[in-house]
Specification:
The chain is of the alpha+beta class. The chain is built from six helices and five strands, in the order H-E-H-E-H-H-E-H-E-H-E. The chain has one domain: NADH Oxidase (3-Layer(aba) Sandwich). Bound molecules: flavin mononucleotide.
Length: 182
């Protein structure tokens, strides 16, 4: 698939099964993340991989965070199962490096670009994925349970695996509705 087709036809897939990207395929995905645009190459990110039993550990931490935040029993039970929706979950973290020139916001954008780069690299290799957020992305107790500090902000949970059915073509969209000339 050529690069423009990949950009124009990228789809998210929520129904994901084994196999997850592993070995050289996963390496390529992580390399793509490290090629995200990055002002002054601060590399303001970390990637936590949850696969195999690591997904259960992540689910347990999410459930504990939900409980601690006083969320209801349904949310707590759902939280424990969330990472099991794909064989690999990449917790993408923006790690702010205080800098005179590059703001925290710009560093967060770099980490966000890395998420999309990983999703595209996965799709380019025949895998699928979906970028998710929800309350866990903002829960500071979950951050601390993952050994993240106040310099860190989760910017996404990238669920990766093999699509169980081929995704529908992307909906048509007209750029003219979002563009104006200056
Ligand atoms: C920062 C961010 C957070 C998102 N969080 C969720 C989420 O929690 N749940 C969800 O279903 N989709 C979420 N999405 C949207 C999906 O990743 C996806 O883009 C959407 O389902 C549309 O599908 P498409 O990418 O094939 O157009 C999020 C996207 C972004 C950029």
């Amino acid at each position: 698939m050529d690069a423009l087709t990949l950009l124009l036809e990228r789809r998210s897939t929520a129904a994901l099964a084994d196999p997850a990207p592993a070995g050289p395929a996963l390496e390529a995905i992580l390399r793509a993340a490290l090629r995200a645009p990055d002002f002054l190459r601060l590399r303001p990110y970390r990637f936590l991989l949850a696969r195999g039993e690591g997904r259960q550990r992540l689910g347990a931490l999410m459930a504990a965070a939900a409980e601690r935040a006083g969320r209801g029993p349904d949310t707590v039970a759902r939280a424990a199962r969330m990472p099991l929706r794909a064989p690999l979950v990449v917790v993408a973290v923006a790690r702010h490096r205080p800098h005179d020139i590059v703001s925290r916001f710009e560093q967060h954008l770099t980490a966000g670009c890395a998420v999309m780069a990983m999703q595209m690299a996965a799709q380019a290799q025949g895998f699928g994925g979906i970028w998710r957020s929800g309350w866990p992305m903002f829960d500071r107790n979950l951050h601390h349970a993952l050994n993240l500090t106040d310099a860190d902000q989760i910017v996404g949970f990238l669920y990766l695996g093999t699509p169980t059915t081929p995704p529908d073509p992307p909906p048509a969209a007209d750029p003219a509705a979002f563009v104006e000339e200056l």
